[in-house]
Amino acid sequence: MKQDRGPLRSSMVTQGLDRATHRSLFYSMGLHPEHLQKPLVAIVNSFNELMPGHFHLQPLCQAIKLGIAEAGGTPLEFPSIAVCDGIATGHVGMKMPMLSGN
């Protein structure tokens, strides 16, 4: 049984007359009113084409987004930086990118 937990936290940027500008920005990205009635769920993705340990993350992120949509949410992906200790060390300018290298 689903419990009503009150208004969604994302309603602070999606609901009400005062948020019409916010909604228009979401609409400009292809979202529809029904998307904004659901929980907005952020997915941080550090995928890039330079880090071997992050190269596989794009298809995983897509699968996660599908799962969020199937569960009734609106997935929104945003990037994060990535550092590869193996590629970034051993040359001028980069001696220890990760604190774990102490």
What does this structure look like?
By secondary structure, the chain is an alpha+beta fold. Helices cover 34% and strands 12% of the residues. It has five helices and two strands. The protein has a two-stranded parallel sheet. The mean pLDDT is 87.
List keywords for this structure.
5 helices, 102 residues, single chain, elongated, 2 strands, two-stranded parallel ribbon, alpha+beta, 12% strand
- What is the H/E string? HHHEHEH
How much helix is in the residues?
Answer: 25-40%
- pLDDT < 50 runs, ≥5 residues: none
User: What is the terminal-to-terminal distance?
Assistant: 50 Å
**Biggest pleated-sheet summary:** 2 strands, parallel
Task: Tell me the structural class.
Answer: alpha+beta
| Rg measurement, Å | 19 Å
Determine the mean pLDDT. Answer: 87
Strand proportion: 5-15%
Number of strands: 2
Q: Which descriptor suits the 3D outline?
A: elongated
Total helices: the number is 5
- Strand order across the biggest sheet? 1-2
Question: Brief description of this entry?
Answer:
The chain is α+β, with helices and mostly antiparallel strands. It has helices spanning 11-14, 20-28, 33-36, 57-70, 85-88, and strands at residues 40-45, 74-79.
